[in-house]
Amino acid sequence: MELYKNLVLLRKLPLTIECTYAYDDYLLIGTKEGHLLMYKIDLKLSSTTEYEFKLHLLRSAKQFSRKPIVQMDAILEYRVLVSLSDQLISIHNLDKISFPFLSSLAKSKGASYFSLDVSKQQTLSGQIQSTIRLCVAVKHNLLFFYWKNNEFFELRPTIKLPDMARVVIWIANRLFVGLRNQYIQVDIDKGTVTKMFPVTSEPLIVPLLAERNLAICREDKTYIFDYEARPLLNCAITWTDQPLSMTDDLLFLIAVEANSTIEVLTNTLRDVINDPFLQKSDLSSQLTRPIKAIGKWRNRPGQLVLHSENDIVMMKIVPNEQQIRILQNARHFELAIKMIEYYNSLNELDNSEIMAGDEYDELKLKIRKLHAIDLFSRFKFTEAISLFQSLKTDPSFVIALYPGILPDRYRNQLLTSEPIVHTPPLEGAMLERGLLTLIEYLVEIRQRTQKQISQQQEQDKSSLAANNLRKFYELLSIIDTSLLKCYLQTNESLVSSLLRIDNHCHLEESEMALKKRGKTAELIILYKTKGLHKNALNLLQHQARDGAAKNPAQARKQLIQYLQELGSDHLKLIFQYSEWILQQYPEEGMRIFIDDVYVDSQSAAWPKDDIVQYLEAINPDLALTYLDHYIENLKWNETSTKMIDTLINKYRDSIRPLIAQYRAELQQQGHNDNRMEILNTNDDENDTEYHYLRPEPAGQEPGKLGQLRRKLMHVLEICDYYTMETLSAYLLHDGLFEERAIVLGKMGNHREALMIYVHILNDLEMAEQYCWKQFNKAAHCKGADRRVFYYLFEQCLRKPMRMELSKYLNDNAASNTFKMSLLLPSSVHAYLNDERNRSILADLDLNVRIAIAILAQHSTRINLIDAIKLLDDRLPLQALYLILPPAIHHLASNHNHSRMLRRLLKSQILKVHQQRIQVEQASRVIITGTEICQACMKRIGKSVFVRYTNNDLVHLGCRDGYELMTQSNH
């Protein structure tokens, strides 16, 4: 369909046409014979796209000129006709029948071309005033005139040109002139001439008055300039052939080419860059002679006049709706919008076509949307998405343009809402490029939608707001699901990142897409973020247990980590899906409950009693492992007596059968033949007690027994929160004497603890270690613990009766006590083996010798007076000769140290007292009787006064006034 309709008005005119001028419904024809013809045209639409006309000859002035009429123009405001004939400018009356002559410009003699400029300005009174200027080319000169009082007056001095002007165009206060071989620019105000560029063809210049631009031809190229001769395009508009004549109409350039070919291009910058071509018509078959020129039809936008030597043609643009449709079909969408804006601004539409504001905006929106769809169909994704954004198009529609993102039914529903949408086949690299653009768009829309949700939640709580929120969340679901599918096709590494954040992916669609791509790990993340932990655990268990994964060990690790990250409200799921791992892989399974290396591990917050019961039901050893970890893990900072008691009791239950078996084995090996020195036999008793050699101390027994006893003793050492009173009795019943000694120490019962080490275990080395531990622990505290070495000395001197030891030896499972040989500390052993000490202590009992050695080694940590009181009065004084001197020296040293410390403290007190006096003296106030009150300016005298920090003195009664005065000054 053509944009312009070509109507042949006159054909085979018997006169030779030289020029034409058309305005309103009238057409003036100037002939070579000097005749001037005036026609009236009645034009109307015969159909939606076709016109019909009637041509009436109104006037014929055969005597208008004796020479050819070369050029015509009119000043319609003053109803005068300006013509160029016989190289002279003449002015005629336009309204009268014979076009009577009014005047001529004598200075224009020899003229070859003229150009009229009519500019309109609004005066302060609101009237429209026209300024009319005339430029006449006379040989190598340009003459300038202005119209006033129905005649032309000289405007400015003549401007000389380097050659004869062939075409002259006014643009503001500049003239653009085409010479024989170049284009020049003339500044009327300054009178300067500036060269532009050379030309080899006939010069051709067309003013684009709507934007104060101009088009200049050079062979088959046309360049667009602004009124300051600055190029507006990086490239030229190219015609099919070299234009012979050219004009502009609306937003188009129309050129006449050889053989009566008419070509229509757009002159809007963006469409010029893309595709300027609109229409091309060949009129050679309809005319007798080739068309020579084309011109505007004044006051009739969209209407042009063309002529050959004997023919007249009118070009008429189709009605507005057809124009828009043609431009849309030609993909000139922006041009279509500009045409709508142009008609709307000029109000040139017919009454039936005038659009209301809403219709106008709706039509523009529709065309721009079609433009965006067209850009998309030509794979210009960035430009298309940008245009969709500016139109605030529904993101669902934009997504629907891409295949495989939305469900087919929903996609077809969206696309069929626009009947002319034709989505191109996207595949391969083109599809990936399009999806990358879509991703950027979706991310931006997602951020904007989330911001809108936040604002809506803060501002409004009504039901309408709730409905809006629902729509926003539905949109977010579409966006996130689309993003997921885009990432699956372009960058799979981003899928997990999307699923880990707070997303709104549609579950079924996302699940289907991930399964289709085999993205098991991402599917698990989806289930997790949606709270579908059972689905995720089923999938993980299938991977780990049923051999679905290539690496089952890694699959088990993932299942363990997932279970650890569940909160305590999912404890049933944790127990359900951890059971098979605990049964098949107990070491790995226990990591669910005791391994908290993961950042999101929640296992520390699980109810521990329930876990212990659950593990106990599967395997008691697992419960023991869990409790052991529970106590060891100091990060939990637990003080639960119940849990620690449970752990200790489980250790006891595990140790009891093992230690019974161990003791039975020792008896069978015949260790009762080995006699040894012991301390706990009362010489006054005749009964003999046999004690069997114990090869290893507690915790060093072979196998599991030693391991369990070490753990038990460690727990008893590091923990303070267990039931010590009842536990002590239980340990005694089990024959776990080392463990009982640790508990007694925790309770502060050091005498009984040391009695176990000395008289039951026969291990003075361990007894001394115990004393050191308690002594150092209490080094900065008051209490009985600092007397532990005295208790050790006391126990070494004692010989407990059998009845005293019966609860250890007879009333428990260890009726036969297994001891190691007497173990002495190295320092005690060296003291006793000293030759001089051996001779002095030779006649004393073993226990006395050891007690004296203990006293000698720890004389500074044992109260000497209390210790001597415990010794037998018959003890030779010589046995203490090595003990007394250093002990007395230590006491004297302590006394001297105390005296020195007391004197230093006294000196420090005196120093502080002296400093206090100095401070008090420095702030004293001396009243001599001459001091003045700063408020009333009277003497202070013997009155009560107040002294301020700035040393001002004020009477007590003047204080309030002084403070008010001070505040006002500040």
Describe it.
It is a single chain. The chain is 44% helix and 20% strand. It is an alpha+beta fold and 970 residues long. Among the domains are: 4-121 and 128-318, YVTN repeat-like/Quinoprotein amine dehydrogenase (Methylamine Dehydrogenase, Chain H); 426-530; 641-823, no CATH class; 925-970, Herpes Virus-1 (2-Layer Sandwich). The strands form eight sheets. Strands 1-28-27-26-2-3-4-5 form an eight-stranded mixed β-sheet, with no helix packed on it. Helix 4 packs antiparallel against helix 5 (381-390). The longest helix has 39 residues, at 884-922. The model is unreliable at 348-354, 671-677, 683-693 and 810-817 (pLDDT under 50).
Write the layout of secondary structure elements.
Layout lengths: L3 E7 L6 E7 L2 E6 L4 E10 L5 E11 L7 E7 L4 E6 L2 E6 L7 E5 L5 E12 L5 E11 L2 E8 L2 E10 L6 E5 L2 E5 L3 E6 L4 E7 L6 E4 L4 E6 L2 E6 L10 E2 L6 E5 L2 E6 L3 E6 L2 H6 L2 E6 L10 E6 L4 E5 L4 E6 L2 H10 L3 H14 L10 H21 L3 H10 L4 H6 L7 H9 L11 H32 L3 H28 L2 H8 L6 H11 L2 H10 L3 H13 L6 H13 L6 H14 L1 H9 L13 H11 L1 H13 L8 H28 L23 E2 L10 H15 L5 H11 L2 H11 L2 H11 L3 H14 L10 H10 L4 H8 L8 E2 L6 H8 L1 H6 L5 H12 L6 H7 L13 H39 L22 E3 L5 E3 L3 H11 L1
Parallel strand pairs: 2-26, 29-30
Antiparallel strand pairs: 1-28, 2-3, 3-4, 4-5, 6-7, 7-8, 8-9, 10-11, 11-12, 12-13, 14-15, 15-16, 16-17, 18-19, 19-20, 20-21, 22-23, 23-24, 24-25, 26-27, 27-28, 31-32
Helix pairs in contact: 2-3, 3-4, 4-5, 5-8, 8-9, 9-10, 9-11, 10-12, 11-12, 12-13, 13-14, 14-15, 14-16, 15-16, 16-18, 17-18, 18-19, 19-20, 20-22, 21-22, 22-23, 23-25, 25-29, 27-29
Membrane topology: Peripheral membrane protein
Protein name: Vam6/Vps39-like protein
Main location: membrane
